[in-house]
Amino acid sequence: xxxxxxxxxxxxxxxxxxxxxxxxxxxxxxxxxxxxxxxxxxxxxxxxxxxxxxxxxxxxxxxxxxxxxxxxxxxxxxxxxxxxxxxxxxxxxxxxxxxxxxxxxxxxxxxxxxxxxxxxxxxxxxxxxxxxxxxxxxxxxxxxxxxxxxxxxxxxxxxxxxxxxxxxxxxxxxxxxxxxxxxxxxxxxxxxxxxxxxxxxxxxxxxxxxxxxxxxxxxxxxxxxxxxxxxxxxxxxxxxxxxxxxxxxxxxxxxxxxxxxxxxxxxxxxxxxxxxxxxxxxxxxxxxxxxxxxxxxxxxxxxxxxxxxxxxxxxxxxxxxxxxxxxxxxxxxxxxxxxxxxxxxxxxxxxxxxxxxxxxxxxxxxxxxxxxxxxxxxxxxxxxxxxxxxxxxxxxxxxxxxxxxxxxxxxxxxxxxxxxxxxxxxxxxxxxxxxxxxxxxxxxxxxxxxxxxxxxxxxxxxxxxxxxxxxxxxxxxxxxxxxxxxx
Length: 487
Ligand code: ADP
Description:
This protein has 14 helices and 26 strands. By secondary structure, the protein is an alpha/beta fold.
C-alpha cells in the first residue's frame, strides 16, 4: 500500500524523488506513540533511493539556481501559503506521529513552519548584504551563490518545524534538497512534499527519502555529490556523519544536544523562576534546548523547591490531542526505555528522586512522569548526560564563580537560562556563560534573524538570518578591474 489515512488525511508512504513517488522493496512499521496504533508501512530507503534522489536534485539544480531569489521567493511564499492553509492537517498528523501536543502544533509550531519558509525566502531577496567596495580602483562584488545539493538529516522531536529551518534557507539560497526525516516521524515530510508540488516548486528541487539513519541516512551523508550536509540530532550520530562527510570534504552544519543550565539567582522572582523551570518539561522533555540542570542559590533553594513542586503538580499528563494536556508520551518505545534506564540507574545509585521517577502507570504505554532529582552526585550521569526526557536535576550554589563553573562544566554549550531580579548581576553571569543562546527571565523566545546553534559539543555553525545563508550559499567575491573595457 502506498497511501495511508492519518487523522483523515491521505499520506503517501513512498519516497518523493524528482517529483514522483518511488517505492522501495522493503518497508518498516510506523506506530503512534499516543497509544501504539498502527499508522502505516513506510518505504525503507537505501543507497539506490538515495542515489536517485541526489541525481534528481543535481539535475534540478542549474535551473533552480538560475531562477534567482525573487522568482524562487514567489514559489516559496506560495508554499508558505499552502502550509498555512493546511495547519490543521499538518498539526493532526504530527501529533499522531510524534506525540507532541496538538494545541502547540496548531497554535505555534505549524504556523512557524510557514513563517520559516517565508522568512528565509524574503531574507534572500531583501536582507543579504551584497557588499560592493573599491580596492585601488577595482570593484569587489560580494555575492551569495547557490552551492548545489544540500542533504538535510532531521530529528523526531519537532519534525517539520526543524526540517524547515533547513529547507527554508537551503531552497531560498538556490540549493536543491534531499531530506531524510527521522524514521520515527516521517509523515509530515511526505505531506509537505505534496505541498511543494502544489506550490509549483519544480520537480527534483525538493526530494524526500525515508528510512533508517544507518541505511538511508548513512548512504546520503556518504554521497560524493553533495555540497552541504545539515544535521540536527545526537552527538554520537554527528561523529559518524562528520567522518563520512570528511571523505568528500562536504561542509557540515550540526545542531546537537545539550544539558543546559537553568540558573536561579538569589535575587530572582521565585514565582517566575518556578514557572520557567517547569517549562523545561515542555514536549515531554524532548527539547535539545531544555535547561535540565536547575542551579539554585542555596539561600532560596527550599522556597524555590516548594514552588517548583507545587507548579509541577499542576501539570496534566495525557493524550496530546486533549487541549488540557501539558505532557504527552515519549516518542518511541526505544527512547522511553532509554529515559527509564537513566532514571533506574540513578535510583540504583541512591540518588534523591523527589518528583516522579517512574512511568505513569495510570496511562501506561510511553508516558513517563515528570521527574526531579535533587542534589545528584556531582559527575554522575544524571547530571552530565543528555536524557532528552522529562527528567531535571536540581543543584545548589553559593557564589557566582561556583555557578558559572557548574553551568559551563559539561561537554555541551547549547543554551542557558538565567532568572534574576537584578540586571547588572544577571549580566555578570551571562557574559561568562558558554552557550549559543542565553535567555534571561524567559525561555524559548526565538527570532529567525538571531543566530542559533551550539558551542562546544552542541554543534558546528549557526542557523538564522545571514548565518544560514553563510552555510547554504557559496559566498563569492568578484574583483573587477577598471582596465580592459572596450566601451
Ligand atoms: P536519536 O538517537 O535520538 O534518534 P539521532 O541523532 O540518531 O538521534 O537521529 C537523528 C537523525 O539522524 C535521524 O533522522 C536519524 O535517522 C539520523 N541518523 C541516525 N544515524 C545516522 C547515520 N549513521 N548517518 C546518517 N544519519 C543518521
